[in-house]
Amino acid sequence: MELLRSHLSRVRIPEPTNRIYKQECCISFDTPRSEGGLYVDMCSFLAFGKDYVQWNYEKSGNPVYLHIQQRRKAVPEDRPLKKPTLLAIGVDGGFDNQEAEYEETHNIVILPEHVSLPFPSVELPEKVRLAVDTILMAEGAERKEQLSSWTADKKQVSAFAMNLQQIKSGVVIPPSGWKCRHCDKTENLWLNLTDGMILCGRKNWDGSGGNNHAIEHYLATKYPLAVKLGTITADLESADVFSYPEDDTVEDPLLAQHLAFFGIDFSSLQKTEMTTAERELDQNTNFDWNRIQESGQEVEPLFGPGYTGLVNLGNSCYLASTMQVIFSTHAFCTRYHEKQSLELAFKTAPSDPTVDLNTQLAKLGHGLLSGRYSFPVREKQDGIPPRMFKAVIAANHPEFSTMRQQDALEYFLHLLDQVERSNAGKPESDPSRCFKFCIEERLQCPSGKIAYNKRSDYILSLNIPLHEASNREELEAFHRLREEGKLEGKEIASEDIVRPRVPLDACLATFSAPEEIHDFYSTALNAKTTAIKTAGFRTFPDYLVLHMRKFVMEEGWVPKKLDVYIDVPDTIDITHMRSKGMQPGEELLPESVSTGHESEAAAKPVANEDIVSKLADMGFNYFHCQKAAINTSNVGVEEAMTWLLSHMDDPDINDPLPDEPRNPNLQPVDESSVETVISFGFPEEMARKALKASGGDIEKAMDWIFSNPDASSSGDMEATSSSGQSPQDTELPDGGGRYRLMALVSHIGTSTHCGHYVAHVHKDGRWVIFNDTKVGASVNPPKDMGYLYFFERINSNP
């Protein structure tokens, strides 16, 4: 006890603002339930597993720790199971109610002697007792950072309910025996509250549900509200009312009146159908991962190093699938596991390692690759929860910091951007470089002269040319059969649906095929004209990532997912896609016009104003829209938006347009416009630069200035009409163009922001499926259903 008293100065009583970690080690995935328990530093309130607490003592000098140990209680075998009644995690009625019970013990441990004192004990100093009580009563920082509830928000009263117009058509709804007006569906039926039409609901991504007749009726009539038949009982609040224009389940305060209009006595109806929330809950409860990705095949569970699952923190499958692939690459395994021990990562980390990306990547890499947390637990594995890593990588990001589903592509690009920043100035240790490559674009105007553009990227985004489907004859026959079935009122079974099969080679060909660039300003002709653009790889990355553009925008900006299969071979050779650079006899477009014309002076495409204005109308920054249009060669709004969404977090997104001439005198601006901008208090240098970037438009120039507060003349970039190799090119990896498919991330659902992501990785000579905590030997990897494909250069690993 005297030893403890001598260290009281290193014991703190937590303040309300202190973050207290007591559920997970900050540098490993040890918990109070691990062997040895968890040690909470009573000065910093960081937690450490038994193998790591000594490191913290040596680094911080803090000797007093609260040791928390949880041991599993014996559970009677005949304990009845409870079915969850709430779509939530960690709350009464939610999931995880079947979790085993644990008995928790506490001790005060003093290092380095490892003296242990029991708690509670009246013999302990009051300061220690108060500090421990505060720690135990506080909500853990891990818990605060994890929004675990998926409980839906309280239903809002529909804006259309109070003044809903109902049509007197003589329709009387019987109390049972309902059927869709347009098909034979007798379940998932919705009564439109305007005209009394009974129609089936939407078709689910797995083929179940209805035939979309209710939503199609709304699109044709604009009648806003429908109630689900079978959910109406005497308790009208439990009825499922959906508002199509509000796209949500709503409350209809006048539902009894609206039902009575069609002769429905709600007091006599019994509940026969699930509400939308209950169906969602049921689907989550009965989630069958084998059926979704492996066609019901029996999958052998795998355990050991490299076969560790990741706990779904709530719609975090996009993170789990991406990180499983990332840590299957040689570069990330080497950087964050093989060549960097946890001890080294911790010793070089700031005082709080929970907010250090390098430490948390090392922690995640160790957790996934060491095998320490991959062992059978009741014929499966528990996996590891990447809470601290998610909190660090998503810090201050408006989307990734939420519990909503996200686009795996956007997350992959955001992750690499953060990794690149954390390794700034140390390119040799930056593992994100293994994905990076340089693209060279060649533009030829009618004068015969050439311009070259260069840009770097981490992914190659490919259009899917449906007209190149290899099963065209089969598709045509299917479409004829479907039309005949519609005339006869017959449905085609989901297993009989024929989908286009497009070869990957055809998708790659769309990237390198010549295309026309309209409104290209030629300095040789001193006029706008149409140029021909071709593109090729200037460097080949160690790992080539292909993004399949399965999500397209239909008329009216309605997103649609292409129902298509991509035939992907195990190996590809893209050697022929390497750019040749400037060839003998080619003449470059001049850097500027000789007439001093006050228009575009650079030998590059200018942003198409129609594309820019449409993107700006959606709320995007005008200058960013210009960059997006230029970097996609003014192909179209959809391509520009895809580029913009993928590069919004780029560190150079606010840099001046790369096509600006280096010499400011090559791009004159109107002096009166310069004076106007200067009159707002901005320096002349910045005024000229902003006007050049915005084409002389003062309003757009002001927008550019506010988007680039640190802009200065030193930030001007060189024009890229030369094909000479830049220093950036030499820093990128390069090699042969032969690749082997090593992983894919597939997606199930109607949008990248909903549904489910699963990863398949080729490891140790076999395909492995990673579906959150479930890891197994893949029986039938869905190579034709990928959203992201990862190819490894053949012979790239030592």
Shape call: globular
Chain-averaged pLDDT: 81
Architecture of one domain, CATH level 2? Answer: Alpha-Beta Complex
What is the beta-strand fraction?
A: 15-25%
CATH class of one domain: Alpha Beta
Q: Could you give the distance between the termini?
A: 56 Å
Main β sheet profile? 9 strands, mixed
What does this structure look like?
26% of the residues lie in helices and 19% in strands. Among the domains are: 123 residues, 2-Layer Sandwich (Herpes Virus-1), CATH 3.30.40.10; 93 residues, Zinc/RING finger domain, C3HC4 (zinc finger) (Herpes Virus-1), CATH 3.30.40.10; 146 residues, Cathepsin B, Chain A (Alpha-Beta Complex), CATH 3.90.70.10; 56 residues, Ubiquitin-associated (UBA) domain (Helicase, Ruva Protein, domain 3), CATH 1.10.8.10. It is built from 23 helices and 28 strands. Strands 12, 15, 19, 23, 24, 25, 26, 27 and 28 form a nine-stranded mixed sheet that branches. The chain has a six-stranded mixed sheet with strand order 6-11-10-9-7-8, covered by helices on one side. Helix 17 crosses helix 18 and helix 20 packs across helix 21. The radius of gyration is 31 Å and the shape is globular. About 8% of the residues have low confidence. The chain has 798 residues and is of the alpha+beta class. Strand 1 and strand 2 form a beta hairpin. Its EC number is 3.4.19.12. InterPro entries: Papain-like_cys_pep_sf (IPR038765), Peptidase_C19_UCH (IPR001394), Ub_carboxyl-term_hydrolase (IPR050185), UBA (IPR015940), UBA-like_sf (IPR009060), Ubiquitinyl_hydrolase (IPR016652), UBP13_Znf-UBP_var (IPR041432), USP (IPR028889). Belongs to the peptidase C19 family. One of its GO terms (biological process) is protein deubiquitination. Recognizes and hydrolyzes the peptide bond at the C-terminal Gly of ubiquitin. Involved in the processing of poly-ubiquitin precursors as well as that of ubiquitinated proteins.
